[in-house]
Write a structure and sequence with these properties.
Layout lengths: L11 E5 L4 H15 L4 E5 L11 H15 L3 E4 L11 H14 L3 E5 L6 H16 L16 E5 L9 E4 L4 H9 L2 H4 L13 H17 L5 E4 L10 H13 L1
Length: 248
């Protein structure tokens, strides 16, 4: 699809450094938003070709399956080299094109501190591209568009959340979307072991969701961070609804 051929404007567009990053971190939130009839998209910056397990072709098939489980309105894998994500002009233009193509209201991106260098660099790349996409003089043959907010999700390194989403009702489907990545979670016998292929890995994902859910009185939760202050015009109504939820 060339610039300008968008079939749908997205309410939210989530970027991950690799296929499976988004499903592992904020998949429950995306499923919940989709259930509320929001149009949601996911873009993997790389094809995961440098991973120990699987291949770019295998991971593309798994990416498609996970997209179907979530119910995405749009999904795409870019061709930025796996293991070598950098925020240079070439890559910024690639991300700007996608933001202008889908014109999302909000963008999800990885937290800027992480064990994996690709996650940290993806965070910077997406943040810069989200801002630059609103500058008209950066030419891509598309109208300029700047998302309202970039919202960050954690991978390995945790943070003090700006807010937590209750994903109790969508958690089971999140796990199904994660399990679509069979090459990573259940490799062939004799394959080299990785952190993700350990039996304890998926349990750790569940435990973290329980941890954040416990902070808001829910079974499962997903944490998010924003850099800017959030506007709130009616704090009485907002906290009153939270109080009522706490009583239930």
């Amino acid at each position: 699809m060339s610039p300008g051929d968008t079939l749908v404007q997205l309410d939210a567009l989530a970027f991950g450094a690799h296929p499976d990053d988004v499903e592992l971190t904020c998949g429950g939130t995306l499923i919940k938003l989709r259930a509320r009839n929001y149009d949601i998209g996911v873009i993997a910056l790389t094809q995961g070709e440098a991973g120990t397990l699987g291949s770019a072709a295998i991971r593309a098939t798994e990416f498609e399956e996970a997209a179907d489980i979530i119910g995405l309105s749009a999904h795409k894998m870019l061709d930025i080299p796996d293991g070598n994500i950098v925020s240079n002009q070439e890559n910024r233009i690639k991300v700007i094109v996608e933001i202008r193509e889908y014109r999302p209201k909000i963008v999800f991106a990885p937290y800027w501190i992480d064990r994996h260098p690709d996650h940290e660099r993806a965070s910077l790349l997406v943040r810069e591209a989200a801002f630059l996409a609103g500058i008209k003089k950066i030419e891509t043959n598309q109208p300029a568009h700047r998302p309202y907010r970039v919202i960050y999700y954690p991978s390995r390194v945790e943070f003090q959340p700006s807010f937590i989403v209750d994903v109790t009702e969508s958690h089971d489907r999140k796990l199904k979307a994660i399990q679509a990545y069979r090459s990573q979670l259940r490799p062939e016998p004799g394959a080299e072991k990785t952190n993700i292929s350990r039996p304890e890995f998926l349990e750790a994902v569940i435990t973290r969701a329980k941890q954040y859910g416990s902070y808001i009185g829910a079974a499962y939760g997903e944490p998010f961070l924003v850099r800017e202050p959030l506007r709130m015009d009616d704090p009485v109504n907002f906290f009153d609804s939270q109080y009522l939820d706490a009583l239930l």
